[in-house]
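[Automated response] Your request has been received and processed.

Submitted sequence:
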Amino acid sequence: MKKIGEFFEKKRMDHKFKNAGTGAKLTDSKQQPSTSHEARPVTPRATPSSSSQMAGQAALSRLDPGPATSRPASASIKAQAKAELAQEQEQAASSADDMAYSRRTSSTVPKCGDNQSRLLVSSVHFWCRCSRRLKRAELESHLQECLLMQLAEDPPSAAATMVYTLNKDKEKVKVGVDTICKYLDNVCLHPTEEKYHKIRASNKAFQERVSPLVGAEEFLQAAGFERRILPHEESETDFFVLGEELAKDTDRLFALKEVLKSGAPFRPTLDRDMRVYHPSRRAAHFELPDDFYSLKPEEIKREQQARTEAVERSMMLRTKAMREADTQKALRWYRYALIRVRFPDGILLQGTFHARDELGTLKEFIRSQLCNSWQPFILTDPGNTKLTNDDAMLAALNLAPAAVVNFSWDAAVMSDIAAAGQGAMRTTYLKPEAMRQLQPL
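Generated structure:
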């Protein structure tokens, strides 16, 4: 073991010395490079351009004007050099403007940072009916737990809600619900025929349409079907069997059918996660978690590039079909929208919304935080376009996954107030309880 240890120690020291460089003797007159990297070759100085040479001659002529005969040529050189200088300054200014524009547009592109501590919104949260605040990742399992607990109180309604809430494919839900309703219709139309009181679990239609649905079996049990093993074709198999007395109660079965058909998914309430910020130059800077996107992390980078290209496309004339295609793409990409409302005093009000929420929902949120909630106001998007269609979705208005909108009072109403002699509007826009949450961005 000692020899093996010495062997690996020798290998380690050899590797260390190899990486340390070539070294040098103290008696050497020339200093050797201290690293293993070779010295970079000295690049020969480039020949000055014709414009640089002319500018240099102009500078020399200012120091030594020379004889009177050379002054006309000197003046010509000086004029050309001045023109070259003006052109270079113009190009530099244009480059600076382009860089500033690039920074403005890139700052509006939301980024999904790897460092969660840097995110202003760490996650999207919801409120359940049990008054519990949950992260999106915790939501599905918690809802299933809550609905299972409600089965003891109201089994048919709880089971119907499970079917609509815990199954994502709406088309499959519709087919499954229609199939269960058909079973109930058969019993109601033939209450005394025993064959309609039984549903074979291995039946192909049942296996494809009903069995995969979460909550379907719970609803059948709530309707009175019991799971039993009965003989079938020289063997035994599972059946859902409705008792004879329950089969005769057709009014109850019709009522259960209506409960299932009129069921609806339970929608937890999205937590607005309201925040109020001091005026900041970082108002248009966003870093969002993956919850906001319907994309995979590697697709988000490609989407950011698409957002940059969208800024360039906005400078072109676009047809209605092209705009509608962009809207549908935005609805597929984004789940939520983080909106900041900038008031004239620079204060920022922030809230989280569904990407499919309508503009009217955003306005209701803003109005709920205003001191003068009755006062009409106007919102404009980052391009200074008025947002007037309250029925338009936030994603369709290019406000998802994040955007800053500007707030202002309606000028016409303000002039009427001034004409009526009611004085100027208060300078504080938000309610005191909202302003108490003021924090730096």
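Summary generated for your ticket: Confidence is low (pLDDT under 50) at residues 29-43, 65-73, 91-118. The longest strand covers residues 225-232.
If you did not submit this request, please reply to this message.
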